[in-house]
Design brief:
The protein is mostly helical and about 140 residues long. It has 7 helices and no strands. It is elongated and about 50 Å long.
């Protein structure tokens, strides 16, 4: 059985991270020159996407869909089971890959990719909305 309280708590944390990222998308060049700025942006991407993965893994386990062997597969299962649309499932699968780069290749991350990703946050918001709708 899906623990709705847990899922909604994770979705709230995710949308809070996305809101912070949206705020930073329009930050000044002076703010962006602070070395902590980019580190904070990366952190909020990691925690937002981690929340989505936690939601996906929990739903898959609770519904008996799996077990998924990877975080990306957990997202794909949500797509194949109708929690997410197929396009969104693919977008979120790529988001998981982005998170993996941030976590495992942190030193070698192309910062311009991270900054560009600030302009494409709809997938994260759509994920939260789709899961919340599925719960209803």
């Amino acid at each position: 059985m899906v623990d709705e309280t847990r899922v909604l708590r994770l979705l709230r944390a995710m949308t809070d991270d996305v809101s912070r990222l949206e705020t930073e998308a329009d930050s000044s060049s002076e703010r962006r020159s602070d070395p902590m700025w980019l580190a904070g942006v990366k952190y909020h991407f990691v925690t937002a996407i981690e929340a989505a993965v936690d939601v996906a893994q929990h739903i898959c386990a609770a519904e008996g869909w799996g077990p998924p062997t990877t975080n990306g597969q957990a997202i794909e299962l949500l797509g194949s089971r109708g929690v997410l649309g197929s396009a969104l499932s693919g977008q979120m699968r790529r988001a998981v890959g982005f998170r993996n780069v941030l976590v495992h290749e942190y030193v070698d991350v192309d910062d311009s990719v991270v900054i560009a990703r600030l302009q494409g946050l709809d997938d994260l918001r759509d994920f939260a909305r789709s899961v919340a709708d599925w719960l209803d």
